[in-house]
Amino acid sequence: MDGTPTLYLFALIGLLGTAAWFVFRQVLKTRRTEVDFSRLQQQLSQGRGAAEDHYRLGSIFLEKKLYGPAIAQFQLALKDKNLTDPVGLALLYNALGYAYAAQEQFDLAIRQYKEALEQQPDYVTALNNLGFAYEKKQLLSQAIATYESVLALEPNNRTAQRRSQSLQQRVSPST
């Protein structure tokens, strides 16, 4: 009987310690992001910066759900003449598509996802995002075909499995 309050006290201390650890980690992550944000804004406002810097600033804007400024940064990155890496271009077009999709501009999002796939045809994330945009536009057969393309590349992709199955049930419901 004497040990019960002590056990509860240790359990409480353990829970509080764990919660404090997670709060501390989140504060550090937020602080790091804000420092990067300030540095990139200052650097780019002085005209010093490459496509990668615009991409990183755009990504921070995406994290903050500031889609308009994110789109502007991604478009500035695309104007960089030194950006020729297909993988980098694919990432950039996918991020731009994501920002458009978040604003429910699905036609523009689809165009950007297709650009990403022209740069890197086996880019599974862009394919999943393209399928999502097709779904939102009610282009269900294109969405299913896109998710099937994902499954051809990654048979265990849970997003594509779940969405493809759901869409197939919507298109041809069982009686």
Verbal overview:
Helices cover 80% and strands 0% of the residues. It has 2 domains: 1-70; 85-175, Alpha Horseshoe (Serine Threonine Protein Phosphatase 5, Tetratricopeptide repeat), CATH 1.25.40. Helix 7 packs antiparallel against helix 8. It has helices spanning 3-45, 51-63, 67-78, 86-102, 106-119, 124-136, 140-153, 158-171. It is mostly helical.
Helix fraction? over 70%
Tell me what portion of residues adopts beta-strand conformation. Answer: under 5%
What is the average of the pLDDT values?
Answer: 90
CATH topology of the largest domain: Serine Threonine Protein Phosphatase 5, Tetratricopeptide repeat
Low-confidence stretches: none
Element order: H for helix, E for strand:
HHHHHHHH
CATH class of the largest domain: Mainly Alpha
Q: Globular, elongated, flat, extended or rod-shaped: what is the shape?
A: flat
Fourth-tier CATH superfamily name of the largest domain: Tetratricopeptide repeat domain
CATH architecture of the largest domain: Alpha Horseshoe
As for the number of domains, it is: 2
The radius of gyration is: 22 Å
Report how far the terminal alpha carbons are from each other.
62 Å
- DSSP strand count: 0
SS-based class: mainly alpha
Number of helical segments with 4 or more residues: 8
How does the major sheet shape up? none
